[in-house]
Write a structure and sequence with these properties.
Rossmann fold; three-stranded parallel β-sheet; globular; single chain; 8% strand
Length: 135
């Protein structure tokens, strides 16, 4: 059976190659699963974004690249690909949501799950594969 949804959230570990690998990953998934929804999630905010303007600028560039890629795919007819800005998942006190400034703690994971749950349920409903109850 086809997957209900793919979530691509690997920016934090992709390095400079994201702009090359993300379009390829989406093409591969789309070729194998033409109707399966794909949700692209940019990386969460890191504590270092507060003190290192270059890290913040890099995150924003990467987020914008992912958003433009998804918008371009949708403009070309792929209405089953979506984007979520991961930097908004943790909230204003994002620096309290990690164990080391990067990796989520319990609070961080709870907020990520809560933020993604709404979007995932919406996508699944739009594609006729909604789930009932809480995740």
């Amino acid at each position: 059976p086809d997957p209900m949804l793919f979530v691509l959230d690997y920016e934090a570990n992709a390095g400079e190659g994201l702009a090359e690998t993300l379009p390829q990953a989406i093409r591969i998934l789309r070729r194998r699963h033409p109707a399966a929804p794909i949700l692209v999630v940019s990386r969460i905010a890191f504590s270092s974004d507060i003190t290192h303007e270059d890290w913040l600028a890099a995150r924003e560039r990467s987020r914008d690249m992912q958003s433009r890629l998804v918008a371009g795919l949708r403009d070309r007819g792929d209405k089953a690909v979506y984007f979520q800005d991961g930097s908004r998942l943790l909230g204003a006190d994002f620096d309290e949501c990690t164990v080391d400034g990067v990796h989520p703690n319990d609070l961080g994971f709870a907020r990520i799950a809560g933020g993604l749950e709404h979007e995932i349920r919406k996508i699944l409903r739009m594609h006729g594969t909604g789930v009932s109850g809480r995740c």
